[in-house]
Design brief:
By secondary structure, this protein is mainly α. The protein is about 70% helix and about 0% strand. Helix 1 packs antiparallel against helix 2, helix 1 packs parallel to helix 3 and helix 2 runs antiparallel to helix 3. The longest helix has about 40 residues. The chain is elongated, with a radius of gyration of 27 Å.
């Protein structure tokens, strides 16, 4: 079970690294790749303790990777907001004028009296 769990984790982290190409630093990528290599080595052996340790190390590396990605995305969105892409509150509505309105649904008795 531990072997299957680590194998799945290795696959997931490898796919994530591929998907994040260019979005994370080379240092972060290198650290995760080193942990991945260690995990693959543990999978090749029969030591359950080593497999569990490798699994824990890979989880920690994946968490740090997610943290870096979040930081990167946050910085990008802040940069986009400060570039003026985000319009202020007094800008014109994109599809015409906006009306603030309240409505009340009529019950059956009120509907009968209309005609």
């Amino acid at each position: 079970e531990a072997r299957n769990e680590l194998d799945q984790l290795v696959y997931t982290v490898e796919k994530t690294l591929t998907d994040l190409e260019g979005k994370i630093s080379e240092d972060d990528k290198g650290r995760v790749e080193a942990v991945l290599a260690s995990a693959r080595q543990a999978l090749a052996g029969d030591d359950i303790g080593a497999i569990k340790r490798a699994s824990e190390e890979l989880r920690e590396a994946a968490a740090k990777l997610a943290e870096e990605l979040y930081r990167h995305v946050s910085q990008e969105s802040q940069a986009a907001d400060s570039d003026g892409d985000f319009a202020g509150g007094d800008s014109e509505a994109p599809h015409g004028e906006v009306f603030d309105a309240e409505f009340k649904e009529k019950d059956e008795e009120e509907k009968k009296g209309e005609f």
